[in-house]
From TrEMBL:
<dbReference type="InterPro" id="IPR033900">
    <property type="entry name" value="Gram_neg_porin_domain"/>
</dbReference>
<keyword id="KW-0406">Ion transport</keyword>
<keyword id="KW-0998">Cell outer membrane</keyword>
<dbReference type="GO" id="GO:0009279">
    <property type="term" value="C:cell outer membrane"/>
</dbReference>
<keyword id="KW-0472">Membrane</keyword>
<keyword id="KW-0732">Signal</keyword>
<keyword id="KW-0813">Transport</keyword>
<keyword id="KW-1134">Transmembrane beta strand</keyword>
<dbReference type="GO" id="GO:0046930">
    <property type="term" value="C:pore complex"/>
</dbReference>
<protein>
    <submittedName>
        <fullName>Porin</fullName>
    </submittedName>
</protein>
<dbReference type="InterPro" id="IPR023614">
    <property type="entry name" value="Porin_dom_sf"/>
</dbReference>
<feature type="domain" description="Porin">
    <location>
        <begin position="10"/>
        <end position="347"/>
    </location>
</feature>
<keyword id="KW-0812">Transmembrane</keyword>
<dbReference type="Pfam" id="PF13609">
    <property type="entry name" value="Porin_4"/>
</dbReference>
<comment type="subunit">
    <text>Homotrimer.</text>
</comment>
<dbReference type="GO" id="GO:0006811">
    <property type="term" value="P:monoatomic ion transport"/>
</dbReference>
<dbReference type="InterPro" id="IPR050298">
    <property type="entry name" value="Gram-neg_bact_OMP"/>
</dbReference>
């Protein structure tokens, strides 16, 4: 059958539009599968040790996700991320059993920044990434404050804008735990969006950071408000502080910096935490967490890194110091093996645990702990 010229032109135009639409839209499947075997000394009040496969993390928490981008033209694009955390030792879902408990958001990216809506990381999580050398490792900052590697909120609106190395970020959550399953360790539950109680379970955070080829710095502030079943856990063996009123606050302030050159990197920072309650019967609590770390790329396939953490909680009379040393060998671009060890020294009344691998290893007051883990990680 012979097409008339106008029909042929229409057919060509439709084909071009169809091809262009496909070319301008993409969805990526990605993930991390990471686990190993861990030894922890003094894993209970009696001083017993344990060998186990940790539930939550090794070098990095296991996850899988979908990330999408569609070009809308004029420098604008629609974006989304759906990310699910899981525990490799038994196949269960993380983040309280949520399907997409790590991230679930949709947004618009433009020349002026990205505006997104859904379950997202707070600015605390984003600000600390450059300076925290070992990151969400099993022997990382989460051993002293489990919220930091899990700093995300439901019902949130975020903005991220970048200009000549500077990044400005802000986030606001109408209720940080809509599912009521425990948004992050030690917080209790705080669903929020309660009629007549606009500040109940609210979370807001801001960030300003600068990144260049050789150095960077960041500062952030985050404030969580209380609710009927909310709490603030300091992870030192002292009972969590109830945050039952909307006026109660759990705030974290971060200042950090890093420098890097020729395969070497150093990072350092301070995080101050302040819990202020509206109840005369509940005492206010503050803590200060300091960290300094370094990494060196010995060869393209072999990296050595480590970090030292110090936390001081004068109100609870608890203090601790932890040192972590880690080595990673890349078998390929996506697969690696690692070995790491850490030692945590508690003060007389403190019960911090060296392992952030899913709980169950809280020592007796004043006991030191050693953690050792060998593992395998694959990224796709």
């Amino acid at each position: 059958m012979q097409l008339k010229p106008i029909h042929a032109l229409a057919c060509i135009a439709l084909c071009a539009l169809s091809t262009g639409a496909v070319a301008q839209s993409s969805v990526t499947l990605y993930g991390i599968v990471d686990t190993g075997v861990e030894y922890v000394s003094h894993a209970n009040a009696k001083g017993d040790s344990v060998f186990r496969m940790p539930a939550v993390t090794g070098e990095l928490p296991s996850r899988w996700g979908l990330r999408g981008n569609e070009d809308l033209g004029g420098g604008y694009s629609a974006v989304f991320t759906l990310e699910s955390g899981f525990n490799l030792r038994d196949g269960s879902s993380g983040q309280g059993g949520r399907l997409f408990g790590r991230q679930a958001f949709v947004g618009v990216k433009s020349p002026y920044g990205t505006l997104a809506f859904g379950r997202q990381y707070t600015m605390t999580y984003l600000a600390i990434q450059g300076a925290d050398i070992v990151g969400p490792d099993i022997y990382g900052m989460g051993s002293f404050d489990a919220y930091v590697p899990n700093a995300r909120t439901d019902n949130s609106v975020t903005y991220l804008g970048a200009y000549q190395g500077f990044t400005l970020g802000a986030g606001y959550s109408f209720g940080r735990d809509a599912a009521g399953t425990g948004n992050s360790p030690g917080q209790g539950t705080c669903a929020g969006s309660v009629p007549g109680h606009g500040t109940e379970c609210r979370d807001w955070s801001v960030m300003l950071k600068y990144d260049s080829q050789y150095f960077g710095a960041a500062a952030s502030y985050e404030e969580q408000r209380g609710g009927a079943t909310a709490a603030a856990n300091f992870f030192d063996g002292v009972a969590p502080t109830p945050l039952i009123n909307a006026a109660d606050k759990d705030a974290r302030t971060l200042v950090s910096a890093y420098a890097q050159y020729s395969g070497a990197k150093i990072g350092a920072g301070w995080m101050g935490r302040r819990v202020v309650t509206d109840s005369p019967a509940t005492s206010n609590v503050r803590s200060d967490l300091f960290f300094v770390g370094a990494s060196y790329t010995v060869t393209p396939a072999f990296i050595v890194d480590g970090e030292v953490f110090r936390i001081i909680n004068s109100d609870h009379d608890t203090r601790a110091t932890m040192g972590t040393l880690r080595t990673t060998y890349f078998l390929s671009k996506r697969s690696s093996v690692y070995a790491q060890a850490a030692y945590l020294a508690n003060s007389e009344k403190a019960r911090y645990s060296v392992s952030g691998g899913g709980g169950g290893t809280t020592p007796g007051a004043g006991m030191g702990q050693t953690g050792v883990m060998v593992g395998l990680k694959h990224m796709f």
